[in-house]
Amino acid sequence: MASAKADDRSPTLAAPLVIPGLGPLANRLLPAVVNVSTSQTIKPDAKRRPDDDQPQVPPGSPFEEFFKDFMDRQGGGSGDGEAKPQKAQSLGSGFVIDPAGYVVTNNHVIDGADEITVILQDNTNLKAELVGRDATTDLALLRVKPDHPLPAVPWGDSDTAKVGDWVMAIGNPFGLGGTVTSGIISARARAINDNGPYDEFLQTDASINRGNSGGPLFNTSGEVIGINSAIFSPSGGSIGIGFAIPSDLAKNVIAQLKATGKARRGWIGARIQTVNDDVATALGLDSTKGALVGGFIDKSPAKEAGIQPGDVLLQFDGRDVTNSRRLSRLVADAPVDKAVPVKLWRKGEIKTITVKVGQAEEAAEQTASLGEGGSGISPSTPLVKALGLSITEATPDLKDKFKLDDSANVVVVDVAKGSPAADKDLHAGDVILEVAQEEVKSAQDVVHKIDEAKKAGRKSILLLVDHGGDLRFVALRIDQG
Asked: Which fold has domain 267-359?
C-alpha cells in the first residue's frame, strides 16, 4: 500500500508566534531609567479671597470654626486671613543618554518647576539642572552631576520600526518606579489633537500610565526608539493606546539642546497643504502622496529656489513626502544652510530643484479681519454664480470692505449654504487668484475655466484662493448636470 505524501494536500500552517523573553533585556536597561521629581511653588491668586474655596456655612454656627481650622491645615488660608503659597509636586520618567549625567524627559514633566530631582534605580537623589527644552516637540534635557559614570542607553532608528514589532516601556507610573511593560507598535505617524506641526507619534499598546511621561520605549535590541509622552484614556488609566515621540525626531532635538541649549529647526518658507482626493483628481495625480505648495512667506528659500504655487513636493533630501505633516518634519530636521534636492510634480512633469534650508523663527500667526459694512457691490457690478460661489470684480468699495490688496481682481461676496464651496470653508472676502492653475482676472474668466473643465470631463477643479494673506488651493466638485 502506497503511503500518502504529507505535502500533497496538507494545509500550510503559519509559524507559531514566539514571544521574546524580556527579562534579561529589562534587567540590563532598568539602571538607565530614572524617576524625575519636580516641585513648584504656587502663589495664591491675588484676585481671590482666601476663603473662596471654603465651604459656605452659616456665620456663628458650630461648623464655622471647624472648617476654618481644616482649611488652614490644608494650606488654603491662615490665621491672619491671608492665603499661603503652596508646593505642588509631580513625578515623571526619564532616561540617561550620556554616562556624564545627561537625562532626557518630556518638557511637560518639568515645565514650571522650581526644583528638579533625578532619582536613580538605587534611590540615589541628584539635583538636576535644565540644559534646554523645546516646547514644540515636548522634549527637555537635564544634567546631573554623579560621582561615577551612569548607565546609559543608545538611540535606535524609529524609522525602521514596523507595526507589529515588539517594544518595551520602562517608567514611573503613579510613582511606581522601575515598572516594565511590553507590547507592540500599533501604528506609526500618528498626529493627536494637532499637538504640534511635527507630530508623528509611534502608537503602542504597551501599558503606559500617568508618570510614564518622559520614559523610554525600547526595541528588542535595547535601543530607545521613542519617548513615552501621551495616552488616550477616558478613565485616566491605560487602555492600550499610548503615544511616543519617535527617536529620529528626538535625537536631533536633544543633540541641539545639548550643544546650544535650544532647538534650531530648518525652514523653507512654503505654505503647504494636504493633497486630498479632490486635489489629486483636479491636478491629474494618481495618488494623494506629497504636499501641495499654496504660497510663500516673503524672501523664502523655497520661492528663491524656483518652487511655484501648485507644485506638489514628492521628495525632500531623498526622503519620500507622504503628506504635508511629513514634509514639515523633514524640513525641520534638515541642517540649516544645507542645499537640499527637492523632487516635485509640476503640471504633469517631474522636476528636481535644489533649495538652501533656512532657519525657522518662532512667530505667532496673524489673521486678517474681513471687517463690516455695506455690501460694496454697486448695481453696475456684474455678479456671477458658480459652484456655490457668488463672485465679482474687486471694486474699490469691495477692496475697502474686505481690506484687500490693490492687485485683487476676483472676490467672493457670498457662499451658498451646503454647496461644495461651503464644504471647503470658503468665505466672503476670499480672493480667487487661479483656476485650474491659470491666472484669472475677471469673474467671467472663472466661469470660462469651469466650463472648460466640464467639457473635458473633469470631476473637480482647483482654485488658488487668498484668504486674508493666507494662500491655499481648494478643489471643488463640478456638477456635470
From this structure: Pdz3 Domain (2.30.42)
Catalytic residue among 90, 213, 324, 460: 213
In the annotation, is 108 catalytic? Answer: yes
| Fold (topology level) of 27-43+65-143 | Thrombin, subunit H (2.40.10)
Torsion of CA 265, 268, 274, 278, to 10 degrees: 180
Bridge partners (DSSP) listed for residue 267: 358
8 A C-beta contact, residue 167 and residue 219: yes
Q: Please state, for a pLDDT cut of 90, what percent of the chain lies above it.
A: 31
DSSP one-letter string for 268-315: --EEEEE--HHHHHHHT-SSS-SEEEEEE-TT-HHHHHT--TT-EEEE
> Who contacts 432 (Cβ-Cβ below 8 Å, separation ≥6)?
391, 410, 411, 412, 440, 446, 463, 464, 465
213 is in an annotated binding site: yes
pLDDT-based confidence at residue 457 (cuts at 50, 70, 90) = confident
How does pLDDT run across 291-316, given as a tens digit for each residue?
A: 898 888 777 899 899 998 889 999 99
CATH of domain 158-260: 2.40.10.10
**For residue range 413-428, what is the model confidence (pLDDT) as tens digits?**
888 877 778 878 888 8
Q: Which residue ranges make up each domain of the chain?
A: 27-43+65-143, 158-260, 267-359, 383-477
Q: Which candidate in 37, 90, 138, 333 is catalytic?
A: 138
Q: Does the annotation count 148 as an active-site position?
A: no
Strands (E), 151-250: 166-171, 179-190, 201-204, 216-218, 224-231, 242-246
Quote the CATH superfamily of domain 383-477: PDZ domain (2.30.42.10)
Q: Please say if 138 is a catalytic residue.
A: yes
pTM above 0.85, yes or no: no
Q: Which residues contact 99 (CB under 8 A, 6 or more apart)?
A: 149, 150, 151, 152
Exactly one of 37, 90, 93, 108 is catalytic; name it. 108
**427 annotated to a ligand binding site:** no
Residue 212 is labelled as binding a ligand: yes
Any known ligand binding at 215? no
Q: Is 148 annotated as a binding residue?
A: no
Rounded to an integer, what distance in angstroms lies between the CA atom of residue 102 and that of residue 123? Answer: 17
Domains 27-43+65-143 and 158-260 are alike in CATH topology: yes
